[in-house]
Amino acid sequence: MKIKHNKKRNTAFVFEALIKEITIAILKENSERRDAAIAIVKEHFSPDTILFRHLQCYRSLYENQNLSQETSEKILKEAKLASRLLDKEGLFKSQTELIKDVNKELTPKFFNNFVPNYKTLATIDQIFSDKLSPSACVMLEGQLTDMMCQESDPTENAPVDDVVVSSFVNRFNTKYDTELLENQKTLLNNYISAFSDNALSLKMFLVQEITRLRARKQDMCNSPEILKDADMLQKTEQVFEKLEAYQSSPITDDMILAILRTQQLEQEIFENGD
Known about the structure:
Layout: H1 11-27, H2 31-44, H3 50-62, H4 69-85, H5 88-105, H6 118-128, H7 134-149, H8 162-176, H9 182-192, H10 200-215, H11 217-221, H12 224-227, H13 230-246, H14 253-270
């Protein structure tokens, strides 16, 4: 028997849809809607909430790829156990409050937001439920572990610590022989703290910063320093092509470095051009 999936009570779907909502609001410069969505995330998905713990169960499955069959099955087993050990009544109550806030502060249409990995999130949600028949559960679990065994994209996220961040600074300073700018420091500080708040602060900063830099593109390309150097103009155009691609890409080393370089380019054009 096929079980109807309730996306409103799919913790991971609502979280990912909220992140998309924040991104769209920032791009449209709708600060009121952005702030409303951010407030919902901070209230309902802070590390001390049951929804955050439930989200971690989902993420342990849909963010892991290129694993062995044995490892995938072990992670799945632990994720199911962790999910089922959560207080069901407390989880349901928290989900109800989340749905209520989304409907009130945003709109019921929010739940129609497109999330690229929706099918995977729906599969995980059904696996976490206790309503599946044994055969249906085994089939869905097989599909999920097969996905977890697929070769991961080379742009997949990796954990970040102070050593990695220090290497960014060293690599950047070695190539450009310059001290970090304030907006570069802000970027790296957000990167350092990314995994203490589900990378929410970093994601929001990146969307804002990429949007800001894109808005500066025409001014940068029209600056005398760039216009008189065809090679420099071409490279600047290539930089912004990368920024466009990063709008929908996972956060990677290359992305962070490219944004650092673009920030440096902006500084050199507008403050050091004379």
